[in-house]
Write a structure and sequence with these properties.
eight-stranded mixed β-sheet, four-stranded antiparallel β-sheet
Length: 422
């Protein structure tokens, strides 16, 4: 029994040695990692306890302004509403500055802080967004805040925010318009003598990969500096201008093409008979109601502004074309049904001057009767001739309208698109 155990131990000895070595290696690594974390926390505690005042700026003792470099990384950009004149953005606000009080050259690694209590313990620039209407700080699943302290004292402060910015739009060329929406970042409590904001040198505003908007395309982004002046002092601020071009594809399908078809359908009445009153009247009234309904649907999604928009010009002109087609039929039908009054009354009553007795009287009576009959025949022929002329004129008006209305609408389209797209 003893021999068997001894032989078994001899067989298992290399494996046991290997396991001991593995435990020793991983244990040393874990202990070193824990030691590094403990050292980081100890160093941070020592830095914060050593005459550190979070109310004072990093360059307060030098009597100069602290420079903070800002950067915006935009995750989503959309919900641009012309009714409320605003848009929503989900972004990361990154700020960098130098704080000599937090140098730790003894450790080569950086100090990452994501604990809100530790974040509150150091000085941070008090910035805000002047043109923001609503803001939310992200808490899912943890507070989205990070502070990274480099050994040389450079600090990176990053926040994730969801903001609704105001964007005052000029809709005079809607929906063929271009808009400029801005994001402003400014100092809230520190004047320009204490805090100066500057954009990052390279790519201060970065759009997320694959970011697209349903209604607009971002043409250009310009980041510049600004300065806000109040009675209590001047404050440093930054502004990012987004040049947006509205995509016209949606409005071509939903607004322009339907109204063009309605106007073209109203011209069908020019090829219908002049005396087909029910058909032409129904077609004219139906197309007029259709273009009016289309205009009302478009206006329901737009603010009530005091100036004329491009879509108002389009819808008003299309309504005028449909209405003119209905008026054309009214005039043509009137010309078709117009009757010419008789030049002379049909009468066989003899005048008193020719009444008499005897043969002379009979002769005079026959002469007057023949004259009256001739005048009545001439009147009937003249009336019929004039009626035929009116019918011919009515038909010619329809023929002229078949050419004039499409030509006038084509000229309007050329002028409209040249002006608003140019």
């Amino acid at each position: 029994m003893i021999l068997s155990l001894t032989s078994l131990l001899k067989m298992e000895f290399p494996v046991s040695v290997f396991m001991v070595l593995l435990l020793h290696v991983f244990g040393s690594k874990a202990s070193s990692t824990r030691g590094a974390k403990v050292d980081h926390l100890q160093i941070l505690d020592s830095l914060l306890k050593k005459d550190y005042d979070r109310r004072a700026t990093p360059t307060n003792h030098l009597n100069k302004a602290t420079t903070v470099y800002c950067e915006l990384y935009i995750r989503s950009f959309g919900s641009i509403s012309p009714v409320t004149m605003d848009y929503e953005v989900d972004l990361y606000l990154r700020q960098k500055w130098q704080d000599e009080r937090l140098k730790h050259p003894d450790i080569t690694g950086v100090l990452d802080l994501n604990d809100p209590n530790l974040v509150k313990a150091i000085w941070k620039p008090e910035v805000y967004f002047p043109n923001a209407k609503h803001a939310e700080f992200q808490f899912v699943t943890v507070p989205n805040v990070l502070i990274r302290i480099n050994p040389d004292g450079e600090i990176l402060y990053m926040l994730r925010l969801k903001l609704t910015f105001s964007c005052m739009m000029d809709l005079s060329k809607f929906p063929l318009d271009n808009q400029i929406c801005t994001m402003e970042v400014a100092s809230f409590s520190k004047t320009i003598e204490e805090l100066r904001l500057e954009w990052k040198t390279m790519n201060p505003v970065i759009m997320g990969k694959g970011l697209k908007m349903p209604q607009f395309e971002i043409v250009e982004i310009i980041a510049s500096d600004c300065q806000e002046s109040f009675q209590i002092g001047n404050y440093s601020c930054l502004v990012a201008e987004f040049y947006l071009s509205r995509s016209v594809g949606f409005h071509l399908v939903q607004s322009y093409l339907p109204t063009i078809l309605i106007v073209v359908i109203s011209w069908v009445s020019f090829w219908m008979d002049v005396d087909s009153v029910p058909g032409r009247t129904t077609l004219g009234v139906t197309t007029l109601l259709a273009v009016s309904s289309q205009s009302s649907g478009i206006q329901s999604g737009l603010p009530q502004v005091s100036y004329v928009k491009a879509i108002d010009v389009w819808m008003g002109t299309c309504t005028a074309f449909v209405f003119c087609a209905l008026l054309e039929f009214t005039f043509v039908n009137y010309m078709w049904r117009k009757l010419v009054p008789e030049v002379l009354k049909r009468t066989t009553t003899l005048p008193e001057s020719v009444s008499g007795r005897g043969l002379d009287s009979e002769t005079n009576t026959q002469t007057v009767a023949v004259t009256v009959v001739r005048k009545v025949v001439v009147t009937e022929n003249a009336s019929g001739l004039c009626s035929n002329n009116n019918m011919v004129m009515a038909r010619r008006i329809d023929e002229y309208s078949r050419l004039f209305f499409p030509l006038a609408f084509a000229v309007f389209n050329v002028l409209y698109w040249t002006y608003y797209l140019g």
